[in-house]
Amino acid sequence: MAAERGDQIAMRCPGARGADGFARYDEAISYRDLENRSNAIAAGLATLGIVRGTRTVVMVRPSPEFFLLMFALFKAGAVPVLVDPGIAKSALKQCLDEAEPDAFIGIPLAHAARCVLRWARSARVQVTVGRRWFWGGHTLAQVEALGAHAGPQLADTAPDEMAALLFTSGSTGVPKGVVYRHRHFVAQIDLLRTAFGIEAGGIDLPTFPPFALFDPALGLTSIIPDMDPTRPAQADPRKLLHAIEKFGVTQLFGSPALMAVLARHGAKLPTLRRVTSAGAPVPPDVVATMRELLPDDAQLWTPYGATECLPVAVIEGRELQATRVATERGAGTCVGHPVAANDVRLIEITDAAIADWRDGLQVAPGVVGEITVAGPSATDEYFRRPQATALAKIREQHRDHGERIVHRMGDLGWFDEEGRLWFCGRKSHRVDTVHGSLFTEQVEPVFNTHPDVRRTALVGLGERGRQRPVLCVELQPGTASGEQARIRSELLRIGGGFVHTGRIDTLLFHAGFPVDIRHNAKIGREQLARWAAKKIGTPA
Question: Which domain holds residue 496?
Answer without folding.
Answer: 430-536
